[in-house]
Amino acid sequence: MPLTEAGIYAAALRLIDEDGVEALTMRKLATELDANPMSLYHHVPNKEAVLRGVTRMVGAQFRTVTLEDAPWQERIRLLAMDFRTLAHRHPELMAYSFSHQPDFIQPDDPFWTALTAIVAAAGVPRSEVSEIAALMVAVVIGVLAAELNGSLHQWSTLKPPGPDDAEDGDGDANPDSADTASEGPDQDHMFRLVMDTLITGLESRLTGDRGGRDAGL
Amino acid sequence: MPLTEAGIYAAALRLIDEDGVEALTMRKLATELDANPMSLYHHVPNKEAVLRGVTRMVGAQFRTVTLEDAPWQERIRLLAMDFRTLAHRHPELMAYSFSHQPDFIQPDDPFWTALTAIVAAAGVPRSEVSEIAALMVAVVIGVLAAELNGSLHQWSTLKPPGPDDAEDGDGDANPDSADTASEGPDQDHMFRLVMDTLITGLESRLTGDRGGRDAGL
DNA sequence: GTCATTTTCATACAACGTACGAAACTGGTA
DNA sequence: TACCAGTTTCGTACGTTGTATGAAAATGAC
Q: What would be the CATH architecture of the domain defined by B67-162+170-207?
């Protein structure tokens, strides 16, 4: 099989999915493709480009159902969930991309297109659409990153630290009492919680009943 | 000067602040300390431990003014700003820590202590304090990470992509019309925006007027 | 001064990304 | 068929990295 740019990316993705980005080596990648390491360099300029290519390739796979006429809250929730699904399909790669590929979201990606459309549909003035969309991407990616590398779970099962002076009854000396067992599904919950909070916050901003803080941006 | 664990961390931090984490080398670090590379290994088990140590060291520097009796909204805003200040003091290190040191926030760190205290003071039921706090940390770190690596600025100055079918008047063919010039201070603005949105969302959740979505967690 | 312990250093190795030039393969023309 | 220009593959090699190993030097107790 004749060694293609796309083939290299696909093989790289396979290896990354198995062992993570930092275990990816040009030599291993070549072995995976039954080729000499140096052969890769005729199709790809260097390792960094491989990672960029793989990231782009995966990003291009993103698809979302665009409920054109659903309320924007529902649409944005759906979009976020779809993005999360993609992140879960290639967790190692995405965790890497989030922090090392600052431009892995392109202006013409379906994700960005859909997001800005929804934000605009929500009633955000045209000049602020990008800011609000950027804000949402940063938040969603932040939560996903924390989820993918385990931080989110760890923090959410962290005890609010020992009361240095007794506060009220019910000491509860046991550090992990109830839910240290379950692992997966509470992440879904956390993600929904973030989205709901974010959406509610946006709603307030849009309908104008600010909590007493600065007026719009 | 006799080569200490703390001294190694301090030197590493100096190098990281200058050239970033990925430019840090055990050899450079040794040179910075006028020592042989292998001498470091008597005070530190390996490079990863150096990074962990530096991260811990910086994390321990965190200080916040705890306005004990201000409204929780103000307190949490302040806490987040203090955290952001710390992140800006060592941007390279923090950007690294966010993604590579999943446990860089410890249960007894002043940051976590303050955060959970504030969340509890906001009226979040005891059993949900950790989740809400975790959520906030993930969001704040996500935004800070995006800010530190330039994503946030890039996204927020991204044009909502070209309308494929004309939507309404005012074509505005010019891609960047007004604000591509300014660079720094709009980050402050974005950060405040996120915090306000988040806080407003939490307020709604706490006062019970959910927007028609699921009841509390 | 002697000796045990701790700290420093010189050397060396495996693994990495990749520069360089030679070999092998390819398709088109005669 | 033979030839040849261009593309693709590969062998070898260099510089850099983290660090294992053991020798050398420094240090402190007696």
A: Orthogonal Bundle (1.10)
- Residue ranges of domains in chain A: 5-59, 68-162+172-207
pLDDT higher than threshold 80 for residue B116: yes
Residue A164's closest CA among B13, B113, B200?
B113
* Interatomic CA distance for residues A194 and A191, integer angstroms: 5
Q: Check residue B176 and give its pLDDT.
A: 40
Do residues B124 and B132 lie in contact, with contact meaning Cβ atoms separated by under 8 Å? yes
- CATH for A68-162+172-207 (1.10.3720.10, 1.10.10.10, 1.10.357.10, 3.40.640.10): 1.10.357.10
| Residue in A with minimal Cα distance to B120 | A160
Per residue in B29-67, pLDDT tens?
999 999 999 999 999 999 999 999 999 999 999 999 888
pLDDT the model gives residue A209: 62
More confident residue, B163 or A175: B163
Three-class SS of residue A36?
A: coil
Do A5-59 and A68-162+172-207 share a fold? no
- Tell me the two tokens of residue A107: 């202006």
φ, ψ (nearest 5 deg) of residue B187: -70, -40
Q: Which chain D nucleotides are covered by protein, judged by CB under 7 A?
A: 8-12, 16-22
pLDDT at B4 over 60: yes
Average pLDDT taken over every residue of chain A: 87
Q: Which two tokens stand for residue A15?
A: 């290896």
* HSE (side-chain half, CA atoms, 13 Å) at B138: 33
Q: Which fold has domain B5-59?
A: Arc Repressor Mutant, subunit A (1.10.10)
Report which residue is nearest nucleotide C25 when distances run from CA to C1': A2
Whether B193 and A157 lie within 8 Å, measured CB to CB: no
